[in-house]
Task: inverse folding
């Protein structure tokens, strides 16, 4: 079974109405061999905040060294987002395998008049995946209620009820007490139930938990009405830290954390309190030590896309999936903490929502542009426009596409204004995709490779056979909503190009699109798309960049702002002086730690490090990368002060080398610690090289303030754990997608994308085959619009071709030649002279006229 067939089958299950109870999903799990028996579970229920709480809980447990599954709903762009293992979404192949195994049974059930719903089947799919991937624990967000929710087919070892309000009254009950009772039914026997409920709801939760033998852990924080008189945990909101992070204080019995979270709003402090208490209870149940650093780092890294997500700061651009009056009221309270002049709203909603109540609870906008997501249930934009006019808003207009509404709002906004996209998570997903979709130029050498590309894109079999032979020009792959994919197809074919769209069913997720054509065809098609006014201007702009056509009017086309502007650094402030500006730069590795995998100890002494730097400069290095902590498998973390003591004297001394002092050679520092980066920059470093990809928000702040270039590497974890099993669908596309998310975080922090160098992270959570795939397709990373660094020197991928640890210099040089030919901007190597020769030879062959 192929993915598009599996997705079509699953989305078709949405026609079946909800039938409360766990019997159906329990029967499916029994058919699957009861995978729930092999996994420890945590459940998170509540009227609001359960998604954020589940995400924070998962993040803290991962930082404690556990393998963690996460099940949430709904998804923003892809069905696979609902089921994650260690942060990575379920693969298309795994989804197809699950449906292939369960479809006959599900069809028989439907034929007998007992069909399972979409949510029930996808819940079972998540449980099956967690068992298949052998996670240590899985965090399940309850869909609706608790007692009768599909997730309650498992027996959790800890659980939480964030809060209770009137919701889904037709199913859950007409009163807060009734709803609290069904939510509290997730209380695990002889195990903790964490809750931020207050008043009557808390009384009911205590009663139900007592019946189950569950110990109630109460949390008091912002927004908790009538909390417990003597709460077990207190949470306080201490204000924003920058545009998209907040400081919170969480205190319990014998423990306290002053933390930061990438989620703003007072209510998120309470969610953090619940998540911290739940993570501590889970770790205790699993007999796992939960270090303070795991809690602090886990909370700091728990991003939650589409939920009050700040994407730009000048103007302030916010995406939030608030879709009912209560959520809009919370949104308004959170937005009130920001300073801005005018508010420009892009709004969409489903037809069954309370439009008048939503308009009343939103902050008063200065202008509104209503729109319609690519979904049948979406409300007519004219109806929404009328609701805002009736609510007293003067400037209101309607457009069809979400992308056009976002662009209109941005064009109206000055740098000190705010642009808000809200009303529907589907609209947020479409708006967000204008920032994340990155068309990839794909190298296709023959019809066989073209056919494989189309098959991976889930094209219909007949289309693959008909189209593959004609993919003989510039080929680009991207992912779009169905309606946008159709518009792109029409434009490309009208220009005598070729365009193939995935055969996947329309379940509100992105579909794959493969285009091919001459430069002239792309030029004609993108001009037409940009001028059509159908929400495709951003696609046209990105597509032109992918095929190296000159940009159209960037402001008018993209509707998106730039980064933070030039930095203050002397060398870093001059783009033309970047070492990678005129060709592939060679970065020499100068490790000053005794335990690095290839050259550990060689440069540990200051004099040896300076001598090594001089040798590299003489051999043709453009950049010197100083590292004070190894990230090889099994490496022990180095304390901050010790790493500073190793790195700073070397940076200072190397800056005295004439070529470095003259600015001909730059100095980079390889570190994942913000304090080390800050000290290194003060000592004269020009570039920060972060193997965690700016995972730490404090590192993003250091880099943004310095205005320096930064290497953002893709990694699953550092130091590397060879036992880590990462499941990629297409390693290149997946890594590009992950790096795109890292770039969004960087830009939110004020880091100009022009200063970011991306690194695919060879050897970090990839198999040798995947490493070679990344190396051979490094040209596809041009989709990100950033310079690309390849770090392959002496790594274990060469062991797969029979080269032992001491036999990899020649293989590294060959890898450098491949990377250079594929367009890499920087190669990071130990043996500078040999690799410099490889770069020079490849570049000379590409442009021999330069030698005359």
Result:
């Amino acid at each position: 079974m192929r993915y598009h067939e599996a997705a079509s089958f699953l989305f078709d299950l949405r026609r079946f109405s909800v039938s409360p109870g766990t019997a159906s999903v329990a029967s499916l799990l029994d058919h699957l061999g009861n995978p729930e028996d092999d996994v420890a579970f945590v459940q998170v229920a509540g009227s609001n905040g359960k998604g954020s709480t589940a995400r924070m809980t998962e993040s803290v447990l991962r930082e404690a060294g556990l393998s963690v599954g996460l099940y949430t709903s709904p998804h923003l762009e892809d069905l696979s987002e609902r089921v994650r293992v260690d942060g990575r979404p379920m693969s298309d192949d795994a989804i197809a395998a699950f449906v292939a195994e369960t479809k006959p049974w599900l069809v028989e059930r439907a034929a007998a008049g007992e069909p399972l719903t979409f949510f029930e089947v996808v819940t079972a799919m998540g449980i099956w995946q967690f068992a298949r991937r052998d996670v240590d624990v899985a965090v399940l967000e309850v869909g609706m209620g608790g007692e009768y929710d599909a997730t309650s087919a498992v027996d959790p070892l800890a659980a939480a009820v964030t809060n209770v309000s009137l919701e889904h009254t037709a199913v859950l009950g007409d009163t807060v007490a009734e709803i609290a009772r069904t939510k509290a039914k997730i209380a695990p026997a002889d195990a903790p139930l964490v809750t931020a409920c207050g008043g009557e709801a808390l009384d009911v939760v205590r009663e139900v938990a007592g019946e189950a033998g569950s110990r109630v852990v109460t949390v008091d924080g912002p927004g908790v009405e009538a909390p417990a008189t003597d709460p077990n945990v207190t949470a306080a909101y201490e204000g924003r830290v920058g545009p998209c992070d907040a400081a919170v204080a969480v205190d319990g019995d014998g423990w306290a954390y002053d933390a930061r979270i990438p989620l703003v709003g007072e209510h998120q402090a309470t969610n953090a309190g619940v998540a911290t208490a739940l993570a501590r209870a889970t770790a205790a149940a699993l007999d796992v030590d939960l270090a303070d650093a795991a809690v602090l780092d886990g909370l700091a890294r728990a991003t939650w896309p589409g939920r009050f997500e700040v994407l730009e700061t000048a103007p302030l651009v916010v995406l939030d999936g608030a879709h009912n009056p209560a959520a809009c009221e919370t949104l308004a309270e959170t937005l009130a903490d920001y300073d801005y002049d005018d508010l420009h709203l892009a709004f969409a909603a489903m037809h069954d929502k309370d439009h008048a109540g939503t308009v009343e609870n939103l902050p008063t906008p200065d202008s509104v542009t209503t729109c319609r997501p690519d979904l049948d249930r979406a409300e007519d934009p004219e109806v929404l426009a009328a609701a805002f006019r009736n609510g007293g808003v003067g400037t209101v207009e309607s457009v069809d596409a979400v992308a056009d509404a976002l662009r209109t709002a941005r064009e109206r906004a000055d740098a000190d204004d705010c642009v808000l996209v809200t009303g529907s998570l589907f609209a947020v997903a479409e708006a967000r995709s204008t920032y994340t979709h990155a068309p990839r130029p794909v190298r296709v050498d023959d019809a066989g490779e073209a056919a494989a590309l189309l098959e991976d894109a889930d094209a219909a079999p007949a289309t693959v056979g008909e189209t593959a032979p004609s993919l003989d020009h510039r080929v680009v792959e991207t992912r779009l909503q169905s309606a946008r994919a159709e518009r792109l197809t029409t434009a490309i074919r009208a220009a005598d190009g070729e365009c193939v769209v995935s055969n996947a069913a329309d379940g509100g997720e992105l579909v794959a699109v493969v285009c091919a054509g001459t430069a002239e065809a792309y030029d004609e098609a993108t001009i037409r798309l940009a001028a059509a006014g159908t929400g495709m201007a951003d696609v046209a702009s990105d597509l032109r960049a992918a095929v190296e056509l000159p940009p159209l009017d960037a402001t008018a086309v993209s509707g998106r702002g730039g980064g933070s502007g030039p930095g203050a650094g002397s060398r870093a402030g001059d783009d033309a002086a970047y070492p990678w500006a005129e060709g592939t730069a060679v970065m020499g590795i100068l490790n000053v730690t005794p335990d690095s995998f290839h050259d550990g100890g060689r440069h540990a002494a200051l004099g040896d490090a300076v001598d090594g730097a001089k040798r590299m400069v003489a051999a043709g290095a453009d950049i010197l990368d100083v590292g004070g902590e190894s990230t090889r498998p099994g490496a022990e973390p180095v304390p901050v002060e010790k790493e500073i003591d190793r790195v700073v004297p070397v940076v200072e001394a190397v800056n005295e080398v004439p070529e470095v002092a003259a600015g001909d050679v730059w100095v980079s520092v390889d570190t994942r610690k913000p304090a080390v980066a800050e000290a290194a920059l003060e000592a004269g470093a020009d570039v920060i090289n972060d193997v965690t990809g700016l995972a730490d928000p404090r590192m993003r702040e250091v880099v943004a303030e310095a205005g320096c270039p930064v290497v953002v590497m893709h990694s699953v974890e550092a130091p590397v754990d060879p036992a880590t099993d990462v499941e990629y669908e297409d390693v290149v596309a997946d890594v590009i997608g992950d790096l795109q998310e890292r770039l969004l975080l960087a830009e939110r922090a004020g880091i100009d994308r022009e200063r970011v160098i991306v690194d695919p992270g060879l050897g970090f959570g990839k198999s040798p085959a995947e490493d070679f795939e990344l190396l051979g397709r490094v040209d596809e990373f041009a989709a990100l619009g950033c310079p690309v660094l390849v770090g392959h020197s002496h790594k274990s991928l060469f062991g797969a071709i029979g080269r032992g640890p001491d036999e990899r210099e020649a293989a590294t040089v060959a890898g450098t030649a491949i990377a250079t030919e594929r367009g890499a901007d920087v190669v990071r190597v130990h043996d500078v002279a040999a690799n410099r020769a490889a770069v020079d030879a490849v570049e000379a062959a590409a442009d021999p006229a330069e030698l005359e």
Remarks:
- Confidence is low (pLDDT under 50) at residues 554-576.
- The longest strand covers residues 233-240.
- The longest helix spans residues 92-111.
